[in-house]
Each structure stands twice: as C-alpha cells, then as structure tokens.
Design brief:
heterodimer, A: alpha+beta, Ubiquitin-like (UB roll), 5-stranded mixed beta sheet, 2 helices, B: alpha+beta, Aldehyde Oxidoreductase, domain 3, 4-stranded mixed beta sheet, 4-stranded antiparallel beta sheet, 3 helices, about 25% helix, about 35% strand
C-alpha cells in the first residue's frame, strides 16, 4: 500500500494505491511508472517513509506495510 | 518542578501517566490556547514562552487569502511532535513543561494553526527552546497547507523538504 499526502495526493489523483514492489525502491519505481511526469517532479523532492518512519530504498515491503510519499512540508 | 511518572492517584481514579510534562496533539478543533498557557505554568518555572501561529490574510503572490486547509499524515505527525518535545528536553534539560499542538482541517483568517509553549526556570531558555521547537516543527512534521485566496486555491509554495528531528543545527 502506498499513501500519497498533500501535493502528492493531488498528483496521483488518489490518496492510496497498491503498486507492485517488494522493497521501498521498487515501490517508488512503480509509482513513478504509473503516475507520470507530475509525480516524477514531486518524487525528486519528496521523502519516502515506511510504516511511519524514514526508510532506505532497500528496506523490504510486504503486503501489510505502508509506504508514504511525503512532499516538502508546509505546516506551522 | 518535575512531576514523577507512573501511576497517579486522584480522588476518583488511577491513571497511567507516561509523559506528564509533555502535551502534543493534532486536532481539528480550535486550539485551546488558554488551557495550554495554564497547563504550562508550573511553580519551578519563572519563564513561559508561547508562540502562536495564525492564519494570515495574504501569501506570496496570493492576495486576499480567505482560508487555509491543513492536512497531516497521521499518526506519524503526532509521533514527530513527540520527538520534537523529547529532543527539546535533551537540549534544554531545565524545561518544565512543553506543549506542541497543531490544528488540522479548514481554518479561517485569524485562527490559530499552531501553538508552542515552553516553561523553564528563566526566560532565556524558554525563548530559545520555543524558537527551536517551532522552527523544527515547520521542517520536520508531515503537514501540508493548502491556501484559498481571491483568485484560486493551491498548495503552499512555502514548503521545506522534510528533515528528521535532530538532524539539523540550531539550539545547543
């Protein structure tokens, strides 16, 4: 499961999606392939978290895991 | 004054308190500013610094802002608020109480979007820690702001790549 937040949700046209991949890096590659150039630009400046915490691209991803695409933040 | 952790008996019940001197929250309700100030005021601290961020009526190139909408990645955002409070205590061990509350959902101009309150024995540490907390919050909590203004609506361009708490400088 991939979760898209803020501007990434808008670029994806959805807040959640299931894409192929058994690692964080593979999931991100699938997101890139599925959602086109707008998402590509956003991924370049986004962080990718696994289950609520920063993760390396080679971290394994299973069916119950949540990968989150986090664009630059603007809270406060 | 530092209250002990562990079970706290009251007249009516026993509650488990893990972080009695830290208050973090994400809420769709108006921020309880008066309660935060009262809560952060403790006998051993003579300084209480409070920062309140409010919705401004304009942004860069966007006159006539009428509302903001905040979206948070929950529960991760709340966990990061806790991390910020913990890191502030590590940097300023004299902190008595620390509160970090952020609003979510749609806010009108003038409403409070964030409140930071830090109490310490003396004012210098309260100002410094509160400043560090709001600066860190703005770059490390997964929250996004969407602006609605006179001619449109869009995500705020005033955004920072997400950083991990404690990865930057500042403070001490």
């Amino acid at each position: 499961m991939v979760v898209f937040l803020g501007p990434a949700r808008e670029a994806a046209g959805t807040g959640r999606s299931v894409v192929p991949g058994t690692s964080v890096g593979e999931v991100v590659a699938s997101v890139r392939a599925r959602f086109g150039p707008g998402m590509d630009d956003l991924l370049a400046v986004s962080r990718v978290w696994l289950n609520g915490a920063p993760a390396d691209p080679d971290a394994p991803v299973g069916p119950d895991d949540e990968v989150a695409i986090l664009p630059p933040v603007s809270g406060g | 004054m530092r209250w002990p952790g562990g079970p706290v008996a009251t007249a009516l019940r026993v509650v488990e308190v893990t972080e009695p001197d830290t208050w973090v929250d994400l809420t769709a309700e108006p921020l309880p500013l008066a309660e935060v100030v009262a809560w952060a005021t403790v006998p051993g601290c003579g300084g209480l610094a409070v920062f309140v961020g409010t919705v401004r009526d304009h942004a860069e190139g966007r006159p006539g802002v009428v509302a903001l909408e905040y979206e948070a990645y929950e529960p991760a955002a709340q966990q990061v608020l806790s991390q910020i409070a913990g890191e502030a205590r590590r940097r300023w061990p004299e902190i008595g109480r620390v509160a970090l509350l952020h609003r979510t959902g749609r806010l009108a101009v003038g409403e409070a979007s964030v409140v930071v309150a830090v109490s310490t024995p003396h004012r210098a540490e309260a100002f410094a820690a509160a400043r560090w907390c709001i600066d860190t919050l703005k770059e490390s909590v997964p929250i996004w702001k969407r602006e609605a203004w006179s001619n449109g609506q869009a995500w705020s361009p005033d955004a920072h790549p997400l950083r991990e708490v404690g990865s930057g400088g500042g403070g001490r």
